[in-house]
Amino acid sequence: MFIPIRIDGDHAVIAPRGAIDGDTRRELYAAAASLPASITTVTWDLRRVDFMDSTALHLLNDQHEGMHAKGGTLTLSNLRTQPLQLLRLAALLYPAGPWASLLAGLAPVSAA
User: Fold this and answer.
1) What's the alpha-carbon Rg for the chain, to the nearest Å?
2) pLDDT, tens only, 45-65
3) Cβ contacts of 92 within 8 Å, gap of 6 or more
4) Are residues 3 and 18 in contact, defined by beta-carbon separation less than 8 angstroms?
5) How buried is 18 (Cβ within 10 angstroms: 0-12 exposed, 13-18 middle, 19+ buried)?
6) What residues contact 36, with CB distance under 8 A and at least 6 apart?
7) How many CB atoms lie within 10 A of CB 10?
8) pLDDT tier at 2, thresholds 50, 70, 90
9) 3-state secondary structure of 7
10) How far apart are CA 40 and CA 36, in angstroms?
11) Which residues, other chains included, contact 39 with Cβ-Cβ below 8 Å and sequence gap of 6+?
């Protein structure tokens, strides 16, 4: 999996390409862990992610909790259809999770 990371001041954008699943879990957690401690805002740009499973839910929840603990924020951008549906289902089934706040204001990217 290719996981570009762009850092601008205290903001990082992580833009994985491919599926977020058990096969890519280790690489994704390593990418997130590689961010400098000074990062207070992380955006996961998911425009090139066409499939996510529960691995993504755990990853995003862990990232959300980590950013919240240091007073930072986690946002998502450019969700395609399947990842967006997964997060909406998670929000419905697990309303205590961060899903509603992560979904706020999102618009899907076309599946093209």
Assistant:
1) 13
2) 999 999 999 999 999 999 999
3) none
4) no
5) middle
6) 7
7) 12
8) confident
9) strand
10) 9
11) 7, 10, 11, 12, 72
